[in-house]
Every structure is written in structure tokens, then in C-alpha cells.
Specification:
Blueprint lengths: L1 E7 L14 E2 L2 E2 H11 L5 E5 L3 H7 L6 E4 L7 H11 L7 E6 L7 H14 L3 E6 L2 E2 L3 E4 L3 H5 L8 H6 L5 E4 L12 H10 L2
Parallel strand pairs: 1-4, 1-6, 4-5, 7-10
Antiparallel strand pairs: 2-3, 6-9, 7-8, 7-9
Length: 196
């Protein structure tokens, strides 16, 4: 089984408002990502909330997702990833697709390609690229979970990913959405104008 983790616990300080609740395609960022995961056939998804968790839970439709709260969200994304992995613990779990709430424009086809590439290659990490540039989401295989869990405070998941560069599967996709990191009002405005 390949499951999904959506990291949505951060403070969105540069944006000035919760990214999870930003409007996009008649929906919100978080709802859009959940819909994309569902349409790609990923049936089990953990949404990790932290900052403004109650407000997001009240105002965003999270039906079908397993919502978990990272009380230590200020320690960064890796702490949220570990909370998500713990929530999804299951003997059948083979890998997780790690989605960032500020990358809402990723296509269903891209997600399917990443999961298919993992199933074919069994690579420890599958990373999408667009015109040679790496993006998100990333698929992380079961064999890296223990290494991620052993990371010290403040260490990024990239520390583990980089150790497996030689066996990482890079998948070129025709999807600029993998590069669109919506981090501030200007990048949000560009996203809306592009209508991706």
C-alpha cells in the first residue's frame, strides 16, 4: 500500500495567512491536494496540522483524511513527517507520497506516475523533475522510515534522501506544478493568474 501524507502544520508566516485555507480552483489548497490524491488512487491519507489546527479543521473539508496534530510543529517539516508516518503505521505500508500544502498545482497524472515508478523500481526515493529541476511531491519507501525516525532535532529529511542519491528514481514529468512553491502573496498571485 502507498499512502499519502500532507504536511500542513507550518505557520505560513511569509504568506500572512494559513496556506491550507487559500482559495484555489473553487476550493482550498488542502482540499485540492486531497482530491488529487484520491483521484490518483491513494486511499489512505494523513493530514498533519499544527499552527491554527482548529481553525483549519473547521473551515476545510477533511472528510476521508486522517487528521493528526503535530504539537511540536515549530521544530519544522521533519517533525510533521514523523507524526504522519506514525499515524499511518501499518504492516502493509510500502511507501508514502509526501505532499506539501504549498504545492497545490500538482496533477493527478504526476501522482500516478510517481506511484507507478515506485512500484516498478522499488527505489527508496522517487522524485519528480520538470525541465531538469526537482520538485514535489516525493515518494519515500519503507526502507527509509527507520532512518527518518532516527534523525535528531532540527535535521531535515533531505539528510536521509541525499544519502540515497545513487538509488533515487528521478521521473521527468510534463507538470510545472511540481515546482510551484506558493510561499508568499506574490507567488500566490502568479499561481492564480497562470490558472494551472
Amino acid at each position: 500500500m502507498v499512502a499519502g501524507i500532507v504536511l500542513a502544520a507550518g505557520e505560513s508566516s511569509r504568506m500572512g495567512t494559513d496556506k491550507a485555507r487559500l482559495g484555489y480552483k473553487n476550493s482550498t489548497f488542502l482540499e485540492t491536494i486531497l482530491k488529487t490524491l484520491a483521484e490518483a488512487g491513494i486511499e489512505r491519507v494523513a493530514v498533519v496540522l499544527g499552527h491554527h489546527a482548529e481553525e483549519i479543521s473547521r473551515s476545510v473539508n477533511l472528510r476521508g483524511a486522517e487528521v493528526v496534530i503535530n504539537l511540536d510543529y515549530s521544530r519544522g517539516q521533519t517533525s510533521s513527517l514523523l507524526v504522519g508516518l506514525e499515524a499511518l503505521k501499518n504492516p502493509e505500508l510500502e511507501a508514502v507520497v509526501v505532499c506539501l500544502v504549498d504545492h497545490p498545482a500538482v496533477s493527478v497524472q504526476t501522482l500516478r506516475r510517481l506511484v507507478d515508478s515506485f512500484r516498478e523500481s522499488r527505489a527508496p526515493v522517487v522524485i519528480p523533475t520538470y525541465q531538469g529541476r526537482r520538485g514535489h511531491p516525493v515518494v519515500i519507501g519503507l526502507r527509509l522510515f527507520d532512518k527518518l525516525k532516527s534523525l535528531g532535532p532540527g535535521a531535515g529529511a533531505n539528510t536521509v534522501v541525499r544519502q540515497h542519491h545513487e538509488t533515487t528514481q528521478f521521473v521527468e514529468v510534463d507538470d510545472p506544478g511540481i515546482l510551484l512553491d506558493i510561499d508568499d502573496p506574490d507567488s500566490y498571485q502568479r499561481l492564480i493568474e497562470r490558472r494551472l
